[in-house]
Write a structure and sequence with these properties.
alpha/beta
Length: 344
Amino acid sequence: MELGIGMFGDLAIDKNTGKIQDTGEKLREILEEVKLADEVGLDVFGMGEHHRPDYAVSSPEILLAAAASVTKNIKLMSTVTVLSSSEPVNVYQNFSTIDQISGGRAEIGVGRGSFIESFPLFGYNLKDYDALFEEKLDLLLKINTQENVSWKGTLRPPMVNQTVYPRAVNNGQLPIWIAVGGTPESILRAAKLGLPLILAIIGGMPAQFKPHMDFYKEQYLKHGHDPAKMQLGIHSHTFVSDNEAICDGYFENYAAQMDRIGSSRGWAPYTKHQFNGGRSKDGALFIGDPSAVTDKILHMHELFGITRFIAHMDVGAPDHKLMMKSIELFGTKVAPEVRKALQK
């Protein structure tokens, strides 16, 4: 099982003044953090796309290209690229460029987007939410496998024998993951196409998602794909500290960000009871000391048979020093214990 770190580039917001952290400062911190993730032997680094004032990264590709220059081994993926409001030709070209810079370490995670700010920003109509993703995924997959592309859709002009360069390192093909939040239609799409699936589990109890994973496996096999090539991942909020006071105090950062998001979605204020429930054995928050986080990841492997776990670590913008320590512990304490247990 691969183990990685994921981020959205949350900007710190002063609770007293409301002042938002400087974007450049945050981006430089992220690059230090991904460099450390590489140095401690983690397998994957993921960066998401957002177009809000409380996130620093609107273009994962640019951040990942910068990360490619300060890392040696870690895979670099988007978590996620909002494909519905993106141009598939540019998406492929940007990630194939990262792939060339990094020596074949680029991957794409695509999704429809739970945040919809990019649709009006780039001139797309939300009524086409599903159709845009379906069509653009079809084009992206064709570009990924064919150097010369002829394609026709309904929402984008056709391509007639067009060449797309540069090509990715591995015969021109990039790994493309489908990132979902639990919508059965999205899971079925990934299974039909035989594409790797990464499921965001950020609330409730992970066990509740087992039917989704079982559905994917069933449909993947039903559509004739090689079970040996099946890849399943989860992406969950994580923070590691060997100091319980720090883990407990992280509630302030976490709740503040949940409430910022929830204010536009009609969510009730996030409570300490929810936080503690999420941290419990059956909850979806991987927040605790290395031993507790190790045990929960191993439980996810036992429950779902996952091949990748992405620890989303920067919710609410924890202090940079605490983030560095969390990544260090994840790479030097959690990852070795998970790998050791899975080798038995």
